[in-house]
From TrEMBL:
Keywords of this entry: Disulfide bond, Glycoprotein, Golgi apparatus, Membrane, Signal-anchor, Transferase, Transmembrane, Transmembrane helix
Localization in the cell: Golgi apparatus membrane
Protein name: Uronyl 2-sulfotransferase
Family affiliation: Belongs to the sulfotransferase 3 family.
Organism: Nematostella vectensis (Starlet sea anemone)
Phylogenetic lineage: Eukaryota, Metazoa, Cnidaria, Anthozoa, Hexacorallia
């Protein structure tokens, strides 16, 4: 199983959960610590070979874009992923770069102190590059589009390629706003790996350790104004089109497995995690 995780979509909380499931269910878990979205053809082939040589059931995760195993004459492994509302993800990433999280981590902000404390609203209203450059805002789709250079540029082609891979290469792509149902679907489809996932996720003793909330919650995050939401939904229109396609497909999958898509079942993950 390949989980090519997307930043600020609950991935660190999921990693902690999968590491516990690996012990409970007896599979190998490979968590690659280095972020590398694009791999050369040689690196992709080496990755395909590594996957093929594994003798034990395993889950591999890394921040990287989709790799097409069929291009190298290999069978596509099971791909899974988890994404979230595009603006919610962007706001979380914006503040995480500046202030880190409960682990006192900061990411890669190298601007001035004034820039560090600039609100997301101000960034948008004053048209800072960080909040308006189409390619900077084109973030989630490339994870599904793949390793082609054309996937790096905001375009309808990249959007369509991401949709194709979503439908034809991914077993499950969930949404963070319905993370409980995502885990339930994984339990049904991949029981050898995810048996007990939802129960483990909800264990009070696990939450007391701060794994879901205190350690991975972005610091100093401020909700955007209604005007900024309106502006950014236009700027993120392709990302929202893809998000809605993922949500629609996920809801169909839930229905196929007897999970009603009702307000009572929806669990908004921000109450527990905002990684």
């Amino acid at each position: 199983i390949i989980y090519n995780r997307v930043a600020k979509c609950g991935s660190r909380s999921m990693i902690l959960l999968i590491s516990e499931l690996a012990v409970a269910n007896g599979f190998k878990f490979i968590n690659h610590p280095k972020t590398q979205h694009f791999l050369t053809a040689k690196q992709q082939l080496a990755f395909v070979d590594m996957v093929e040589q594994q003798s034990q059931s395993f889950i591999f995760t890394r921040h990287m874009y989709f790799i097409d195993f069929q291009r190298f004459g290999s069978v596509t492994p099971i791909y899974i992923n988890l994404i979230r509302d595009p603006l919610s993800r962007l706001v979380s990433q914006y503040y995480f770069r500046r202030f880190g999280d409960g682990r006192n981590r900061t990411w890669d902000f190298k601007g001035s102190e004034a820039g560090r404390h600039r609100s997301f609203d101000e960034c948008v209203i004053t048209n800072r590059t960080e909040c308006m450059d189409p390619n900077a805002l084109f973030y989630v789709i490339p994870f599904f589009c793949g390793q082609s250079r054309k996937c790096r540029v905001s375009s309808k082609w990249a959007f369509r390629q991401a949709l194709y891979n979503l439908v034809n290469r991914y077993l499950v792509v969930g949404i963070l706003e319905e993370v409980d149902d995502f885990l339930t679907v994984l339990e049904k489809l991949l029981p050898n790996f995810f048996k007990g996932a939802l129960e483990m996720w909800k264990m009070p003793e696990t939450r007391r350790k701060g794994r879901r909330q205190d350690e991975t919650r972005t610091k100093n995050k401020k909700a955007p104004s209604a005007e900024v939401v309106r502006i950014m939904k236009k700027r993120l229109h392709l990302e929202y089109e893809f998000y809605e396609a993922v949500k629609e497909r996920f809801h169909r999958l839930k229905k196929e497995h007897g999970l009603a898509d009702s307000a009572e079942r929806i669990r908004f993950a921000d109450t527990r995690i905002t990684s």
